[in-house]
Specification:
- The protein is an all-beta fold.
- It has one domain.
- 0% of the residues lie in helices and 54% in strands.
- The protein contains no helices and 13 strands.
- The strands form six sheets. Strands 1-3-9 form a three-stranded mixed beta sheet, with no helix packed on it. The protein has a two-stranded parallel ribbon with strand order 2-8.
- The radius of gyration is 42 Å and the shape is rod-shaped.
């Protein structure tokens, strides 16, 4: 969210002994006080206030519930006659992988009020004898940037891997062999860090 606020206040003050010697003042852009009567007091005051506000918020919430199961066991070779019996199970792998990418904020706040009035835009002209003339310009610029990141990750996992409970019973006249491969269970959770950047 970007907020851009500019406020320009122009004040013209004139005081003259001879009111007829004053010309109308211009308020739009130029802020000119013209002709200034004798003994007059003339003042132009310009207040420029600019506030540029940028707010960025990221909330990341990840919840994972996983119960993977791998089973290559539970094989039976029973009651065989006259030949060899072999049970060879493959690998049982139960794994959980959770990858969470970090959130990021990148802000490029806008230029703050480069368009404000300058002294060159104003004139107090033809000053009378003994007059007091003053131009005052106040330029206030405020740039406010707020960046926040919040990441919450919750993982619940119960992986199971089995290769056992193989049976070879009641076989005659041959050899009996049971070979089981690896049973692995794993949980891998990775969270990338969040980042904030300003130019």
């Amino acid at each position: 969210m970007t907020k851009f606020l500019q406020r320009v206040s122009v004040g013209l003050t004139t005081a003259a002994l001879l009111a007829g010697a004053l010309a109308p003042a211009a308020f739009a852009g130029d802020a000119i006080i013209d002709h200034n009567g004798a003994g007059s007091n003339n003042k132009i005051k310009v207040d420029t206030v600019c506030v540029s506000s940028v707010t960025q918020t990221n909330n990341t919430k990840v919840t994972t519930n996983a119960n993977p199961s791998a089973n290559s066991g539970g094989n039976n070779a029973n009651g065989n006659t006259g030949s060899g019996v072999t049970i060879d199970t493959g690998n049982a792998d139960a794994s959980v992988t959770v990858e969470v990418g970090g959130s990021s904020n990148s802000a490029d706040p806008p230029s703050c009020c480069d368009c404000g009035p300058t002294v060159d835009d104003m004139k107090i002209t033809d000053n009378g004898v003994g007059s007091t003339n003053k131009i005052k310009v106040t330029d206030t610029k405020v740039v406010d940037v707020l960046q926040r990141n919040r990441t919450r990750v919750r993982t619940t996992a119960h992986p199971k891997a089995k290769t056992g409970k193989n049976n070879a019973n009641g076989n005659t006249g041959g050899t009996v062999g049971i070979t089981t491969d690896n049973a692995t269970a794993s949980v891998d959770v990775s969270v990338d860090p969040s980042s904030n950047s300003l130019p």
